[in-house]
Automatic annotation (TrEMBL):
<keyword id="KW-0675">Receptor</keyword>
<dbReference type="InterPro" id="IPR011009">
    <property type="entry name" value="Kinase-like_dom_sf"/>
</dbReference>
<dbReference type="Pfam" id="PF00069">
    <property type="entry name" value="Pkinase"/>
</dbReference>
<dbReference type="GO" id="GO:0009791">
    <property type="term" value="P:post-embryonic development"/>
</dbReference>
<comment type="similarity">
    <text>Belongs to the protein kinase superfamily. Ser/Thr protein kinase family.</text>
</comment>
<protein>
    <recommendedName>
        <fullName>non-specific serine/threonine protein kinase</fullName>
        <ecNumber>2.7.11.1</ecNumber>
    </recommendedName>
</protein>
<keyword id="KW-1003">Cell membrane</keyword>
<dbReference type="Pfam" id="PF13855">
    <property type="entry name" value="LRR_8"/>
</dbReference>
<feature type="signal peptide">
    <location>
        <begin position="1"/>
        <end position="25"/>
    </location>
</feature>
<keyword id="KW-0325">Glycoprotein</keyword>
<dbReference type="GO" id="GO:0005524">
    <property type="term" value="F:ATP binding"/>
</dbReference>
<keyword id="KW-0812">Transmembrane</keyword>
<dbReference type="InterPro" id="IPR003591">
    <property type="entry name" value="Leu-rich_rpt_typical-subtyp"/>
</dbReference>
<dbReference type="Pfam" id="PF00560">
    <property type="entry name" value="LRR_1"/>
</dbReference>
<keyword id="KW-0732">Signal</keyword>
<dbReference type="InterPro" id="IPR017441">
    <property type="entry name" value="Protein_kinase_ATP_BS"/>
</dbReference>
<dbReference type="InterPro" id="IPR001611">
    <property type="entry name" value="Leu-rich_rpt"/>
</dbReference>
Length: 979
């Protein structure tokens, strides 16, 4: 027993020593982690709050930390999405056991220096993506022997990819996409032979060619290089990439032929070569690419035929549109069991469409428009009932529309105009419930529009001109409330227009010329508020021209010629701003209204024998042909009219006066949003010309000084005749501004409505709009850089509130310097919510398709203009434009930018023309507003704001930061130290 004790002691001692080592090392790790946390990171969400020494099992139990289960040493730090900020915390790498460091999706800023990164040579993976790092990429020493993943994507790194990036013998993933790299794509990348992913997309690289020896990367699975300024040929060695699954070289300027060797990509699933300058014929070398699902070589200069070996692959989609391809589509394509998308438009294809197309696969989209296809439509194109897009226009396709197409209820978009189709259209073909667009014009189709068309509730465009359709227009057409464009012209329609047609409130174009319509022109047309074009010419309409046409204020095209219309030309029509006005060849009579009494309109008036004019030759003169008694009666009645008119006017005036002056408030609907010490009469009395301070799209704005000493701004909206959406604008302002409160959003005090009179009263902003201050002639206050920065931050905060704190989020849709108002201290507030959109949060992408683009020229995001999809990212784009205005002092469409250039293009070119220059502030000086006091400019801050502006105005919405991120970034930049 006595012998045993020391042994036991020894055993215990050894165990203790061992424990000490473990505890010692984890203590050191913990100490390092805490030091970084406390001195180098800002953690606004408190994600790292559990990093405290007293935790059991520290630091392995801490959020974001993982340890090796045996040694209890820290092996991974993962702070992805923690919202932390600060500079690159390289000190984490002082933990020698650390293998994986993931700091992605945070708000880290500043450069990543070669010195700091050199601490990290023992890492296996380093992920810094989606932060705001900038400056050059760091140099890497030769010690990074074990690094397999390097992800610097979604940052603002500039300059070259350093030569030391070759020092990664084990690197598998290199992701540098979505930065501002502007060097070239180096050849040495082909030495990184362990790479499985090489992702450099979306960088403004200098023109460079693909590494000639790219084929050495035989383990590569993803080669992702769209928008990287690649030029020259695709090297033959590409065919050696036997593991490659995705080849994306789209959106570059690659030239030459697609190499034969492409047939070696035996694992490839997707090939994207669209938007390049590739030419020559497609190689007939695809037969081994049996995994290929998507092939897109559209928008190149390819010629000759589609090779059989490509057509016989089981592709899901084949896109070859916008080339110069010719010949027939190989029949074998119709046997493909997977094909769902086929885009061959804008080529020179000919022959008939494969007979069995659609039989064997779930075809969803086919667009072969603008080719020379002929012969019949494939009988079974919609056999699987999945077809949505049928686009065949501008070909020579003949025969009838097969009866089977009547069962294709999945169709939403049909454009088969400009062909040689004949016979009747299957009745159901008019009436699919999801149909949005039906264009079948310029064929030889006949028959009538069936009442069943009422089922196509979503139809916006019905364009069927240039056929032989006949019979009456069924009144069921009035159920199609979305109809915007109706073109039935050059057909054989007859009978009267259904009177309910006046209820189609979204009509923009109604063209029924050259038919045999008869009856009167609808009289009460005031609901056609969006109508810009009305063509009833060459029909058999009779009766009078309705005066109410004069109330359609956006109408610019009015043709009623060649009918049997009688009566006088209503004076009201002269109020319209018409580009086209034609009432010739009718039975009109009386005096030509003064507004049309000009030589310019003569041809529009001819062919009406009873129309007269005091002086317009050769129209008969009104007075001379009429006997004196008639004249007297005329004069007398004019006098009488004037008298009655003035009496009426007086009556109305006094009535109005009564309404304004008396305290009869019943008819006024008034809503107060804040405590106000005034009443509407006091405001109304001040809406006079001398108080007018601005006239805008939605109305007039007056400055109103109240007895209480307070000054407010009152906006009187245009009447409905001037602004048809007046009511909606009013409602939107009231609904949005009435329920939100933010220091950077204008305060609505008060609203007031009475019949056609709508008024909104806001807090008064002494310094007017930012647009006026920056670009106005008067100049206004001079904004030096610190004030401009404060304005940028304030606007960003207001917008972040709308986008992220309001539930559901609000998209302003008209962010521009004229809608940013400045108070006495030049603090900014967002105004004008008449076009704002509250997003419905169904679905997670939060985007909505609008029926028309609102917003202001120069501020509209490119994708919004094209797709009409509105997202918060469209506002971010407009905000980016405002930032560029603040930096440059120029308006977004300043004439000095030159042809087709806006501020975004101008600044982007200046900023990227020479990155060294940006460093030296030279390029910056070309952009900076010279009116700013140079000594007050913080160049460093300007550069950062410029970087934010450039990412806000990225073409791709996903590359734009959220407003919340912008705010965080600005805040970081406004003070150099953290905490
Ligand atoms: C830490 O880890 C230990 C064991 O691994 C566990 O029992 C404990 O609940 C964990 N949590 C805390 C807060 O200590
Ligand atoms: C690389 O990994 C090996 C094996 O895990 C290790 O022995 C070596 O020390 C590591 N090298 C570096 C530079 O960390
Ligand atoms: C790339 O590899 C080739 C062939 O092994 C070699 O000759 C060349 O020096 C390497 N390039 C660099 C920059 O290391």
């Amino acid at each position: 027993m006595a012998f045993r004790k020391p042994f036991l002691f020894l055993l215990k001692f050894c165990f203790f020593i061992n424990m000490m080592q473990i505890v010692g090392s984890s203590n050191r790790d913990a100490a390092i982690l805490l030091r970084v946390k406390n001195s180098q990171l800002d953690d606004p969400l408190g994600k790292l709050d559990d990093w405290v020494e007293t935790t059991h099992n520290a630091p392995c139990n801490w959020t974001g930390i993982s340890c090796d289960p045996q040694t209890l040493k820290v092996v991974s730090i993962n702070l992805s999405n923690f919202n932390v900020s600060g500079n690159f915390p390289a000190d984490f790498c002082r933990i020698l056991s650390l293998q994986n460091l993931n700091l992605s999706n945070n708000n880290l800023v500043g450069p990543v220096t070669s010195d700091s990164i050199s601490l990290c040579s023992h890492l296996l993976s380093l992920n810094l993506s989606s932060n705001y790092f900038d400056g050059n990429l760091p140099e890497f020493s030769t010690k990074f022997l074990n690094l397999t993943l390097l992800d610097f994507s979604f940052n603002s790194f500039t300059g070259e990819i350093p030569g030391t990036f070759v020092n990664f013998p084990k690197l598998q993933i290199l992701a540098l996409f979505s930065n501002l790299l502007n060097g070239s794509i180096p050849e040495f990348l082909s030495n990184l032979t362990e790479l499985t992913r090489l992702e450099l997309a979306y960088n403004p690289f200098r023109q460079s060619s693909l590494p000639v020896n790219i084929g050495r990367l035989t383990k590569l699975q993803n080669l992702w290089l769209p928008l990287t300024n690649l030029t020259g040929k695709i090297p033959d060695s590409i065919g050696n990439l036997v593991s490659l699954k995705n080849l994306d070289l789209s959106n570059n300027t690659l030239t030459g032929k697609i190499p034969e060797s492409i047939g070696g990509l035996k694992s490839v699933e997707q090939i994207e070569l669209y938007k390049n300058q590739l030419f020559g014929e497609l190689p007939d070398a695809f037969s081994n690419l049996t995994s290929l699902l998507r092939f897109d070589a559209s928008e190149n200069n390819l010629t000759r035929k589609i090779p059989e070996s490509l057509a016989s692959l089981p592709l899901e989609s084949l896109n070859l549109n916008d080339n110069s391809l010719e010949g027939a589509i190989p029949d074998i394509l119709a046997l493909n069991p997977k094909l769902n998308t086929l885009n061959l438009y804008n080529n020179r294809f000919s022959g008939t469409l494969p007979r069995n197309l659609g039989m064997n696969s779930e075809l969803e989209e086919i667009d072969v428009s603008n080719n020379s296809f002929e012969g019949p439509l494939p009988q079974n194109l919609c056999y699987r009932k999945k077809l949505q897009l049928l686009v065949l226009f501008e070909n020579r396709i003949s025969g009838s529309i097969p009866e089977s197409y009547g069962d294709c209820s999945s169709l939403t978009y049909v454009r088969i105009q400009n062909n040689e189709l004949s016979g009747t259209v299957p009745e159901e073909f008019w009436s699919f419930s999801g149909l949005e667009r039906l264009e079948i014009s310029d064929n030889k189709l006949e028959g009538s529009i069936p009442p069943a068309i009422s089922n196509a509730k979503g139809l916006t465009q019905l364009v069927i001109f240039g056929n032989n359709f006949s019979d009456k227009l069924p009144s069921e057409i009035c159920y199609l409330h979305e109809l915007a464009i109706v073109d039935l012209s050059v057909n054989q329609f007859s009978g009267e227009l259904p009177s309910c047609i006046i209820n189609l409130t979204k009509l923009q174009r109604l063209d029924i010329h050259e038919n045999m319509f008869t009856g009167a022109i609808p009289k009460t047309v005031s609901l056609w508020r969006d109508l810009t074009e009305l063509d009833f010419s060459h029909n058999r309409f009779f009766g009078e021209i309705p005066a109410e046409l004069g109330s359609l204020l956006v109408l610019t095209y009015l043709d009623l010629s060649w009918n049997s219309i009688s009566g006088e030309i209503p004076e009201e029509l002269t109020k319209l701003k018409l580009n086209k006005f034609n009432v010739s060849n009718n039975r009109l009579e009386g005096k030509v209204p003064l507004g049309f009494n000009a030589n310019f309109y003569l041809s529009s008036l001819m062919g009406n024998p009873d129309l007269c004019s005091p002086d317009l030759k050769p129209l008969p003169t009104c007075s001379r042909s009429k006997p004196v008694s008639f004249m007297l009666v005329g004069i007398l009645s004019v006098i009488a009219l004037i008298l009655i008119g003035s009496l009426l006017w007086l009556l109305i005036k006094t009535k109005k006066f009564v309404a304004f002056g008396s305290k009869n408030k019943q008819s006024w609907k008034i809503t107060s949003f804040q405590q106000v010490r005034f009443n509407e009469e006091e405001v109304l009395a001040s809406l006079t010309n001398e108080n007018l301070i601005g006239t805008g799209r939605s109305g007039r704005v007056y400055q109103v000084k109240l007895k209480s000493g307070q000054t407010v701004a009152a906006k009187r909206l245009w009447e409905v005749v001037r602004l048809p959406e007046s009511e909606r604008v009013f409602q939107l302002e009231v609904e949005t501004l009435g329920r939100i409160r933010h220091a950077n959003i204008i305060k609505l005090l008060f609203s007031c409505i009475h019949e056609d009179f709508r008024m909104l009263v806001y807090e008064y902003m002494e310094n007017g709009s930012l647009g006026d201050v920056l670009h106005g002639e008067k100049g206004g206050v001079l904004l030096d850089w610190p004030r401009r920065f404060a304005i940028a931050l304030g606007v960003a905060q207001g917008m972040a509130y709308l986008h992220h704190d309001c539930v559901p989020p609000i998209v302003h849709r008209d962010i521009k310097s004229n809608n940013i108002l400045l108070d006495k201290e030049c603090r900014p507030k967002l105004a004008d919510f008449g076009f704002a959109k509250t997003m419905q949060q169904d679905g997670n992408d939060c985007e909505q398709v609008m029926s028309s683009v609102v917003g202001s020229y120069g501020y509209i995001a490119p994708e919004y203009a094209h797709t009409m999809k509105v997202t918060v990212k469209s506002d971010v784009y407009s905000f980016g434009v405002v930032l560029l205005e603040l930096i440059s002092g120029k308006s977004p469409n300043h004439s000095s930018f030159g042809e087709n250039k806006d501020i975004v293009k101008w600044v982007t070119e200046a900023a990227f023309s020479n990155q060294e220059q940006v460093k030296e502030n030279v390029a910056l000086d070309q952009i900076l507003d010279i009116r700013m006091n140079p000594s007050a400019i913080e160049y460093h801050q300007v550069k950062r704001v410029l970087n934010v502006a450039l990412s806000c105005t990225s073409e791709l919405p996903t590359n734009r930061p959220s407003m919340r991120r912008v705010v965080e970034l600005f805040k970081l930049h406004s003070s150099t130290h953290i905490k």
